[in-house]
Fold each of these.
Amino acid sequence: MKRWCWIFLALLLCGCREQLAPKETGTAHYDRPGQSSRKTEESCDMTVFAMDTVMSLSVYGGNDRLMSQAEERIKQLEGLFSVTDENSEIHELNSRGKAKLSEDTERLLESALKMCSRTQGTLDISIYPVVKSWGFTTGEYHVPGKEERAQLLENVDYRKIRLTSGHASLEPDMEIDLGSVAKGYTGDELLALLRENGITSALLNLGGNVQTLGSRPDGTDWLIAIQDPQGSGYLGGVAVSDKAVITSGGYERFFEDEDGNIYWHIIDPVTGAPAENGLISVTVVSESGLLCDALSTSLFVMGMEKAEEHWRQYGDFEAVFVEADGTISMTEGLEESFIPADAGLERDRRIIRRN
């Protein structure tokens, strides 16, 4: 019998504390918080608000000095990548059309542009002015008409972004936002920091972007819960070690107009409107947080058919897809590691295979 414990996306308190291990269970039932009874290695936990979200770190074998270093690293990267902080490099690039970049910003921008190219523009970091027009950055929601969207889309084209020897430049009226990759990059950098300090087991939750270092202290995999986009519970979870698990869904940020129409924040760069290609949730699993972050958004925009093609072409990630009709599909690499929640046992799961 395997020991499993749901990793719920809850806030963690600062300071070191003892973690509780789960009791023995079967595959049809999972321990909930408060039901565990056996102590394991002590962990250090920290919660910080950054990048417009709550981030929590649980580090086994950590200490206050290391947790302070991790917080400083988060704040440093936020200060570089923020689109609203007037002192950030991205704000300067958007305001002046050019900027000298630090090593971190250059690396992230270069990686983001590669993902834009790889996804043939379904991920486009220059979509920021369109996202603003819908009010997702301000909370002042607005449904832009076709003419307004068409005008804004004239300046959306990642291929016009120039990056040369630590300097970046934009065409007039262009603006970029690295929000689709920034948390993934930050998670990767935090894991690198922890490894450098001898840590072998940690769980990071950066606003729902979950990244794991090693396995749980008892040697078993982490089981990361995937939310049901059509309900208040969970579809199930994926058992992972040394992996990132990142989900994009229409349920995360949305607004409703006076006629009851729902608009979510994931914008299709072709239409300038919320992506409606049949998917309502995409979870990506990979060793790279940045890759998962970028793909969870771009696969959502692609739709099921093109997302499958992308997986078969590259093969460097696994994924769970939920369609509007409730169909759950997952790539074959997750067939054995996906554990359904109680509420999801009766739902069919389609396995996507390479051949």
Amino acid sequence: MVKQPQLVDMLTAGMRGASARQRVIADNIANVRTPGYRRKTVQFEQILAKALKNGDAPTSLQAKILMLDTTPADQTGNNVDIEMEIGELIKNSSTYKTYLRMLNKVYRQMELAMTVQ
């Protein structure tokens, strides 16, 4: 069973990863018409899973930003697909909100435990 402080650390790390992904997606969208721009993506869940498997604290984990050169580019050399980015944006927003809701529940449980007499 995961203890609440560990759960808070995991959820906070997840929110940091989702925030990093949000920034990268926004950057991709902003550069959708920039010639030669290559789409970036974020690798975080694998890093978090590995840290948890190894028993490492998730508090200092950093998302890894990758540039995808394998995605087909248009005639200007840009490989950003706006429809895919919007889909990723929606999915990532839901992920962030889920982490936030779970974190709020943990804090409410802690608060309730401190006020029950």
